[in-house]
Amino acid sequence: MSSVQNLLLESLLGTKHVDNAAIIKIHARTVLVSSPGFNISPSDIRVLVNGFSKNPVQVRRDGLYFREKDYKCVRADERSLYAKKRIMLAVHFDQPGGPENLYLKEVAKPEPGPGEVLLKVAASALNRADVLQRWGQYSPPPGASNILGLEASGHVVTVGPGCQGPWKAGHSAMALLAGGGQAEYVTVPEGHLMPVPKGLTLIQAAAIPEAWLTAFQLLHVIGQVKAGETVLIHAGSSGVGTAAVQLARQAGAIPLVTAGSLDKIKAVEKLGAAAGFNYKEGDFSAATLEFTKGAGANVILDCVGGSYWEKNVACLALDGRWVLYGLLGGAEVHGELLSKLLTKRGSLLTSLLRSRDKKYKAELVAAFTQQILPHFAQDEPGSLRPVVDTVFPLKQVAEAHVYMEQNKNLGKIVLEVTPVP
Ligand SMILES: NC(=O)c1ccc[n+]([C@@H]2O[C@H](COP(=O)([O-])OP(=O)(O)OC[C@H]3O[C@@H](n4cnc5c(N)ncnc54)[C@H](OP(=O)(O)O)[C@@H]3O)[C@@H](O)[C@H]2O)c1
């Protein structure tokens, strides 16, 4: 590193006073940095500028050009430019692997593009997808942020060009994301934002978008559930499961659940499940057939897959819809799945929300906002409510991942990004 860069790092970037800001004055043929006494000749300008950032910038006769993505120009005139580096803290990992790989890193702060809104994140909930992505088993869809986090709540900071929706700076909102929520700021297409239901905190709001939109989509768009039908919901105590039980009840259907402990089953029954079966201690398939007097479940919401296939098809009703949306129990199937499914005239349907296109998600968000959000309320009988198990500060993201991988949560794990009153 050259002496000029050293000078710069020590005098400017290193001082708490300017803290990630750069002040460069161009006067005559001399470049002055913020602290008096550091006069640097024009031939050193390029070295100086490179000292601010590893990213390429241009030096022209009329001034210094910083990449918009990395620096925000706070003030500029003919002689000087004051640029503040755009940074934020985000959950990061350098290598795929265990939770110990997670840490908070300073990264570039995003800027809203056309039709996008910049949200200052208050909270973001954890999903199994985050765990899989950390293990290197689930890449973000093309164009999505590499930062973890499929949902967030917070406040609108700025609105990008061409936005036509109702969002203004200061509005509180919750967002469905393809990634990027576990950071201080995130950009989101305006159509993927929803208002925070009255009476709900931003912590509760962060627990809604991914889990509830998934459950809504599985039940209504994919599973086409009807009043009076029986819906078997696996992992009933999961984020998605606790939402699906409430939505199935709301649709007039009869939700049954599977879960791995009596405590979880009791809690989900309080949310509206008609019955719950501990899959570790008994045969949920036989229990479902017994409950339905042999008819079976009209719809099965299945995030388990491989290990459940035979029991699923055995308790599927004639003309039933088996909706596969996760593979917690593996992806391998050995046996006569096709003939058993055919005998039931069953439909095997699959769904992934994250990789859907922006238009599909915007339509889903609009339908959910109109049909379901009005039914969220605090402590009103029969109202919908997000189930928050635990809140971790963002810096404890690794502990939050461990907690989820140990299947301890009943409902959602929320990461508090900025302190929520
Ligand atoms: N396709 C989509 O669009 C989409 C969207 C969101 C989520 N998902 C999927 O939905 C599932 C739930 O996600 P989430 O974030 O809501 O999960 P979560 O809150 O972490 O809950 C998952 C629960 O599943 C149960 N479980 C774990 N491994 C199991 C196994 N091998 N067999 C049976 N049960 C098992 C555990 O509860 P017990 O104690 O009861 O075992 C665990 O607590 C995940 O598979 C996720 O990938 C899919």
TrEMBL record:
Gene3D superfamilies: Dynein light chain 2a, cytoplasmic, Medium-chain alcohol dehydrogenases, catalytic domain, NAD(P)-binding Rossmann-like Domain. InterPro entries: ADH-like_C, ADH-like_N, ER, GroES-like_sf, NAD(P)-bd_dom_sf, PFN, PFN_sf, Quinone_OxRdtase_PIG3. Residues 97-415 form the Enoyl reductase (ER) domain. It comes from the Eukaryota. GO terms for molecular function: actin binding; NADPH binding; protein homodimerization activity; quinone binding; quinone reductase (NADPH) activity. Keywords: NADP, Oxidoreductase. GO terms for biological process: NADP+ metabolic process. NCBIfam families: quinone_pig3. This is Quinone oxidoreductase PIG3-like isoform X2. It comes from Phascolarctos cinereus.
